[in-house]
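Tutorial handout. Part one gives the primary structure; part two gives the three-dimensional structure as tokens.
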Amino acid sequence: LRKSLGKADDVARDWAAELRKLLRRMLGVSASVRESNTDIIPYSVFAQSIPPGAAVCVLRTEDGALGFMMMSPSFTTYVLNRRLGGSAQQQPSVSEDVRTFLSAVDRRIVRPFCEEVVAALISTWGKDEVSVAISEVLARPIDLPKLAQFEPLLRLPLSVSLGLESNEELCVVLTGTAIKMPKIEEKAPEPVRSSDRGRMAARLALAE
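Part two.
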């Protein structure tokens, strides 16, 4: 994961730009999206930091490696309202409208947006290195798949601002097995020339 931090910083900038386009296309809103510092955190810290009402998606690779995507509760509610035709002028806020958990209908409505967010990350990182898909959207954070308490996770956080007082969090976290490091091509050894063979034979003869 430490080897992936530099690449993650570069990816986060491009991912933020793609998310701005996605918000205009799917929600019809113009937003400021900024990348925060990528870091490595233990699973326990991530799990305990998720508030009720947040949209949490379980990500899996083809070979079963895990990752997660999380959106803050108020941003989740905003996405749901916009997908249902709500006003774009209504700013996300911690209010009675924020859900404490996501119903089956909520999860079906928010999933296409989350899938596009994950697809944007994969396209900017490169599917040869990161290729995950949403396996499920959880009703509650407590339903997270259990990992070892200190399992390290690479976190890519974004900050989404939809108004003067709006500063919403969206992040993806990945386990080490969900990231494939690019293979370093080894240079083929240069063929030994006949003149080199002669010099080598002469040195061996002197050594004897």
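Part three, for discussion. The two ends are 51 Å apart (CA to CA). The chain has a mean pLDDT of 86.
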